Automatic annotation (TrEMBL):
InterPro entries for this protein: ARM-like (IPR011989), ARM-type_fold (IPR016024), Armadillo (IPR000225), HEAT_type_2 (IPR021133), PBS_lyase_HEAT (IPR004155)
Protein name: HEAT repeat domain-containing protein
Source species: Candidatus Heimdallarchaeum aukensis
GO molecular function: oxidoreductase activity
Gene3D superfamilies associated with the record: Leucine-rich Repeat Variant (1.25.10.10)
Job of this protein: Catalyzes the hydroxylation of the N(6)-(4-aminobutyl)-L-lysine intermediate produced by deoxyhypusine synthase/DHPS on a critical lysine of the eukaryotic translation initiation factor 5A/eIF-5A. This is the second step of the post-translational modification of that lysine into an unusual amino acid residue named hypusine. Hypusination is unique to mature eIF-5A factor and is essential for its function.
């Protein structure tokens, strides 16, 4: 009997007609691959009337598709038939049938497949191992332990590991531990990967034994797994492993111990702070900090802070800040004098996190006088974070320093602290010879919000020759938010002889955001010189109350002065008020004065509101006498948009029809 016929006989119980359509449908789309058994099976498919493209004759995907369909239609008769096929003389048939039984997933196949683990062909044994993994029956674990785990083929042993993952039973952990002794590194790494997924508290003793494995990566991963479990039975073994010759193992052990809430773990990590390896000392400091236990504070202070390695000291400083223990304040303050600016920066940050008032004076000195800008910045941030008002008087003294940079920083911190004692000295600083100092003083006064600063800030807004100072002063007036600044600024904006003063006053009024400033700004925008107008206009574009829109419409249409008309129109475009648009539409449609209609149409065109155009079109279409239509045509042409003109012409043409 030939191969094809012998393979085919195992499927004699199948009603092929019930599954041909589904197989053909699935075979319609698939790609390449190779199978050692498709040359047996493809002829069987063709004989059964299954569509088959010779280009894919060697495609493993074809076989998998057919097997998948067969597994869905399997019954006991087919299973018994397939089990009998496991004894077939042809190894390809045995391998294919094992794969199919794995897909079907019936427990009747477990024992026959286990017997086939001793098959002479390694490909058959691999197929059997994979099939048993898919079946997921714990009976397979014992068989793997007795037979497959010691198979001559590396591929079979690796498949055992993958199948243990599929089965997912904790009983498989002992096999995985045993697989760590495999001579092939691929098998070992595969076993290690699966082991880390399956371990639980029942695996602790086995894992402890694996801490002595010959491979460093095994010892490292096992330590990681023991830390994940967190069982105190592992502590003594992990402590011993801190002396492992490999750094990566010691590092994993230290991290595992950090997860153990036990004094033995902490004591061993403290001892690791004196390890010969700089990297290990840094890891020990890191994990001690992660424990978050006050017992870690003293070792970090006494040992890690004094370490000769920069990275160890850096890690200790950061962790002491995170722990927030006041015992660290004094030694950290001493380190603010360290020659390394990065150390000083980290110390400043740590002191801010601890928040102890003893750090105020040293932080002030670092803020004002440290030669490194980063140290100054982080010291300043820590001062602000602590927020202790004992810093105010020393900082006020700093406002008198001969160095502008010191005066700037002092002003900035005083503004953040918000103490009224700083108002008078900061007002004096508005006259400082340095522009940056004046800028920072104005900003600080705005943050403090004391009304005593209003008049000096008005003067700075109007008369300082540096824009940024004027800008900060105007913003400070806005922060203070008092209406008492409005009246003097309004008078200056409208009546001061100096156009520069009027311009600055208009800007300040816009910053104050008070509704009483709108009309004066309109006056300044319409009637002042060009530079004052520009400032007033930009502020109105952001702040103008729509209630002023009617005034602007009237000025746009009826004002004789062309400059005023243009400025009023510019403001209307910025405001885009719906009431103003509606009024302009009515004027376009019905006003008797052609010049007024022209101005209104121009205004609508500038505003660019599409709804206004639609309204004009509708009115033109409803007009039987022609007067409104004429006005609309005139308005659209003034708007100057070719598409609008074409749309209007089309609409009127359709109306005539």
């Amino acid at each position: 009997m030939g191969k094809l016929e012998k393979f085919d006989k195992y499927f004699s119980s199948i009603d092929w007609t019930s599954i041909l359509d589904e197989i053909n449908e699935r075979l319609f789309f698939f790609g390449g691959g190779y199978s050692r058994i498709l040359d047996l099976f493809s002829a069987t498919l063709i004989e059964r009337g299954i569509w088959f493209d010779s280009r894919y004759y060697m495609s493993n995907k074809v076989l998998k598709i057919v097997f998948k369909v067969l597994s869905q239609f399997a019954d006991n008769n087919l299973i018994f038939s397939l089990v009998s096929a496991l004894d077939d003389y042809d190894s390809d048939v045995r391998a294919a049938v094992a794969e199919l039984l794995g897909l079907i997933g019936h427990s009747l196949a477990v024992d026959p497949l286990i017997k086939l683990l001793k098959d002479e062909n390694c490909f058959v044994r691999s197929s059997v191992v994979i099939a048993l993994g898919k079946l997921g029956d714990p009976r397979s674990i014992a068989a793997f332990n007795d037979i497959a785990l010691y198979d001559d083929s590396q591929g079979v042993r690796a498949d055992v590991i993958r199948s243990l993952r599929e089965i997912g039973d904790p009983l498989g952990v002992s096999l995985l531990i045993e697989a760590l002794k495999d001579e092939d590194s691929i098998v070992v790494r595969a076993a290690l990967e699966v082991l880390l997924e399956l371990v639980d508290s029942g695996s602790v003793e086995l894992l402890i034994e694996a801490l002595k494995d010959r491979h460093w990566f095994v010892r490292s991963s096992v330590a990681e797994a023991l830390g994940k479990i967190g069982d105190p039975r592992a502590i003594d073994s992990l402590v011993a492993a801190l002396k492992d010759k490999d750094y990566f193992v010691r590092s994993s052990v230290a991290k595992a111990l950090s997860k153990m809430d036990d004094s033995r773990a902490i004591d061993s990590l403290v001892a690791a702070l004196k390890d010969k390896d700089l990297r290990m000392r840094r890891i020990a400091a890191e994990v001690l900090g992660e424990i978050g236990d006050s017992r870690a504070v003293e070792p970090l202070i006494d040992v890690a802070l004094k370490d000769e390695g920069f990275f160890v000291r850096e890690k200790a400083i950061i962790l002491l800040g995170e722990l927030g223990d006041s015992r660290a304040v004094k030694p950290l303050i001493e380190l603010l004098k360290d020659e390394d600016w990065e150390v000083r920066r980290n110390v400043a940050t740590a002191l801010g996190k601890i928040g102890d008032p003893r750090a105020i004076e040293p932080l002030i000195n670092a803020t004002l006088y440290d030669g490194n800008c980063e140290v100054c910045y982080f010291s300043k941030e820590s001062l602000i974070k602590i927020g202790d008002m004992s810093a105010v008087e020393p900082l006020i003294e700093g406002l008198k320093d001969k160095h502008p940079s010191v005066r700037c920083v002092a002003a900035e911190v005083l503004g953040e602290l918000g103490d009224s004692r700083a108002v008078k000295p900061l007002i004096e600083l508005l006259k400082d010879e340095n522009r940056k100092v004046r800028c920072d003083a104005a900003e600080a006064l705005g943050k403090i919000g004391d009304p005593r600063a209003i008049e000096p800030l008005i003067n700075a807004t109007l008369y300082d020759d540096v824009f940024h100072v004027r800008n900060n002063a105007a913003s400070a007036l806005r922060e203070i938010g008092v209406s008492s600044a409005v009246e003097p600024l309004v008078k200056l904006a409208l009546y001061d002889e100096d156009s520069e003063v009027r311009k600055n006053a208009a800007y300040a009024l816009g910053e104050i955001c008070n509704p009483n400033v709108v009309d004066p700004l309109i006056d300044a925008d319409l009637y002042d010189d060009e530079e004052v107008c520009e400032n007033a206009s930009s502020e109105l574009g952001l702040r103008c109350d729509p209630s002023s829109a009617e005034l602007l419409v009237n000025l746009t249409l009826y004002e004789e002065d062309s400059v005023v008309r243009a400025r009023a129109l510019n403001l209307l475009v910025q405001i885009r008020d719906s009431i103003a648009i509606e009024k302009l539409i009515n004027i376009v449609l019905y006003d008797e004065d052609s010049e007024v209609r022209k101005n209104a149409a121009k205004a609508l065109g500038e505003i660019g509101d599409t709804n206004s155009f639609e309204t004009l079109i509708m009115n033109a279409l409803d007009d039987d006498e022609g007067k409104v239509t004429k006005n609309v045509e005139e308005a659209v042409r003034i708007m100057g948009d070719p598409e609008l003109i074409e749309s209007l012409e089309d609409a009127l043409l359709n109306k005539s029809w």
